[in-house]
Amino acid sequence: MEFELARYWWVVALRGVLAILFGVLIFFAPGLGVLFMVASFAAYALVDGVLAITAAVRGRGRDAPWWALLLEGIAGIGAAVVAIAWPGITALALLYVVAGWSIATGILEIAAAIRLRKYIEGEWLLALSGVLSILLGLVLGLMPVPGLLALALWIGAYAVVSGVLLLVLAFRLRGMARHVARSEYASAR
User: Exposed e or buried b for every residue in 149-167, given b needs 16+ CB within 10 A?
Assistant: First the structure.
């Protein structure tokens, strides 16, 4: 298993290079990162909608409520069309989902820290994480355009760091593949 992965080290390296290029591109054009998020959502919604409609058509006539799947599929395709037709609105909606999730997560982290204070030391770290999460949600919600650009830049930073890590892994795998090949050659002699 390990040797098979090592044999294809170049695939891991290619993924790393592509991730770095994507991240650098987002740093120079953060709007592309926002468009990428919207395009990813549109592709997902379209595929999910088509699959739901397919399941509805195939399940028609059975006891299952096929019409609910049909409506779900239509809604998914509709969401994809809206994302493609109005990418700015879709990006904004996604940002508000992230903001709401961040605020809800922060509230739950603070509540967990309060409940855990009798059982663990350092519960304030969890509470602080909750406060930061709430602040992030508020900033994203109150300043959506800079929030979208910041989110795109974070995705770019992630892509660059991830790409570098994949390149390091690829070259370690390459070394492993060479070592295994030398060992096999030596044992065959």
Answer: bbbbeebbeebbebbeebb
Task: Give a yes or no: residue 170 inside a domain.
Answer: yes
pLDDT value at residue 134: 94
Q: How far is CA 67 from the centre of its chain?
A: 31
pLDDT < 50: residue spans in the chain: 1
How many domains, in total, are found in the chain? Answer: 1
Euclidean distance between CA atoms 185 and 172, whole angstroms? 20
What does the pLDDT read at residue 4?
A: 65
Query: Does the residue 4 lie in any domain?
Result: no
For residue 61, with 0-12 CB atoms within 10 Å meaning exposed, 13-18 middle and 19 or more buried, which class applies? Answer: exposed
Specify if 2 maps to a domain.
no
The pLDDT assigned to 152 comes to: 83
The answer to whether the CB of 79 falls within 8 A of the CB of 50 is: no
Check: CB of residue 41 under 8 Å from CB of residue 47: no
* Structure token digits, residue 103: 């605020």
Residue 176: its H or E element: helix 144-188
* Residue 23 included in any domain: yes
The maximal CA–CA distance of the chain, rounded, in angstroms, is: 71
Domain that holds residue 51: 13-182
**pTM above threshold 0.90:** no
